[in-house]
Amino acid sequence: MLSYHLWAVQGTPLARPARSGTEFVPLYRNRVNVEGATHKQVVDLIKSGGDVLTLTVISVTQQEAERLEPTEDLAGYTYIDYSEKRSLPISVPDYHYLEKGGERYVVFNIYMAGRHLCSRRYREFSNLHLNLKKEFIGFTFPKLPGKWPFTLSEQQLDARRRGLEQYLEKVCAVRVIAESDVMQEFLTDSDDEQGSISPVDLKVLLPDREVVTVTMKKNSNTEEVYFAVIDKIRMSKSVAKYFYLFEIVEYNFERKLQPSEYPHNLYIQNYSTATPTCLCVRKWLFSPACELTLASDEQATTFIFWQAVDEVNRGHIHAEDRLYQLKAQQDSSRKHEYLRLARELAGYGAVVFPHCSCDSRKEGHVVASVGSSGFKLQACREDGVMQPQVVHFSWSIIKEWEVDDDSMAFCFHYQRPEKNPRWVKIFSPYDTGGKQMGRHRRMTCGQPLATPSIYHLTPSVAALVQPSSGMKTSP
């Protein structure tokens, strides 16, 4: 008589012979596939077979057998799925020499999608290999290029570089390994053996769609990187104050960086994206009159022109029946005519945030936009599809606002003429510039707000509600 162990686990065979010698997994009973069947269904099939039971089996690997029925010594073994693969554009294109404490050694430069992640010594690769083998016991890792006790020639170093690149390509192709803490620390930890002073190349997208590369230290902050960019493109300081460095994030939205942030950290955190960079330069100016004073600067006007083209294409500037006219002038040689027309359209110069929830809407989301004329909320579905309802709040009726980082909410208090005052709460990850605002901060207005400008350091709702001279922080 055959002894069976029966399971009712979806996606795995339900019955198999008792463990002895070669492992077998029965797939069929009485010509009926029982893979994924319930315990009762298998028992019913056995009963209905009468005196004859037809059993079809296939052999499985030892690893699969241990997954289905762990032995006592592998009781703590956790099954890991290595089948999910993906192609990551990781490469080790070159290497360079460093000196530290009188020692001269080679580090290999690791890139992802064209951006530099880190530089690692061979022994760091070796430690990675050992740590991964401890973490993923059931995976067959490719060989790492062998050690060599003597000084390597340039030809040998290049062969080692190619071997390390192939190793990373194969290992990172397995999603569960690529996303493991061990691998992430190896690829993103800035506190490597060379320290945070080692130089890295940062690519920054300009408004005219050109990409400029600056060589910076890993621990360079936003201010230092931005000044390096404007120095590289030879932008005057009088113009540079109307632009700044942004992070390209979701939903066609760019987040203005804080001066104290480290762009290289953002750069490597976004290594899996297909774009060449997540950093860009954009206009940060909300006064139409002030913008007109920049018309004599060719570079500033070109940048403003291309940003306006981008905002028209996104639908943030509502061209409507003027779209054909704008398209006819969409050439850098006609940028002044294009901007003259664009400035007349609704939405010009406004910052439009990704859709989010709002306490004023029981169903659906809102799209918040902030511009020189005021604050606007447009209704949309939860998937971001726009709906016709729009509510506009001029700066004169907004009396106070507050930010609560705990609930990731921006709240503002407004009062229309002959109406009771009301609070509106918007839940968005872009509610504020960050921790420097404090966990909970409120601003009150002593006189109407004329125009928004920079209060804090990122394009957040709070960042654009600039207190006038009569505004004070409430206790």
Helix-strand layout with pairing:
Layout: E1 4-6, E2 15-17, E3 24-29, E4 32-33, H1 39-48, E5 55-59, H2 62-68, E6 90-100, E7 103-112, E8 115-120, H3 122-135, H4 154-172, H5 175-178, H6 181-188, E9 199-205, E10 211-217, H7 222-232, H8 237-240, E11 243-249, E12 253-256, H9 263-269, E13 279-283, H10 288-292, H11 298-314, H12 323-328, H13 335-342, E14 351-352, E15 357-358, E16 365-371, E17 374-380, E18 386-394, E19 398-404, E20 409-414, E21 422-427, E22 440-444, H14 461-464, E23 472-473
Antiparallel strand pairs: 1-2, 3-4, 3-5, 6-7, 7-8, 9-10, 11-12, 11-13, 14-16, 15-21, 16-17, 17-18, 19-20, 19-22, 20-21, 22-23
Describe this structure in words.
The chain has 475 residues and is an alpha+beta fold. It folds into five domains: 4-74, no CATH class; 90-188, Phox-like domain (PX Domain), CATH 3.30.1520; 199-283, Phosphatidylinositol 3-kinase Catalytic Subunit, Chain A, domain 1 (Ubiquitin-like (UB roll), Roll); 288-342; 351-473, PH-domain like (Roll), CATH 2.30.29. The protein has 14 helices and 23 strands. The chain has helices spanning 39-48, 62-68, 122-135, 154-172, 175-178, 181-188, 222-232, 237-240, 263-269, 288-292, 298-314, 323-328, 335-342, 461-464, and strands at 4-6, 15-17, 24-29, 32-33, 55-59, 90-100, 103-112, 115-120, 199-205, 211-217, 243-249, 253-256, 279-283, 351-352, 357-358, 365-371, 374-380, 386-394, 398-404, 409-414, 422-427, 440-444, 472-473. The strands form seven sheets. It has a six-stranded antiparallel sheet with strand order 15-21-20-19-22-23, with no helix packed on it. A four-stranded antiparallel sheet has the order 14-16-17-18, with no helix packed on it. Strand 20 (409-414) and strand 21 form a beta hairpin. The protein is flat and about 85 Å long. 29% of the residues are buried. Residues 1-25 and 433-475 have low confidence and may be disordered. Residues 198-286 form the Ras-associating domain. It holds the Pfam family RA.
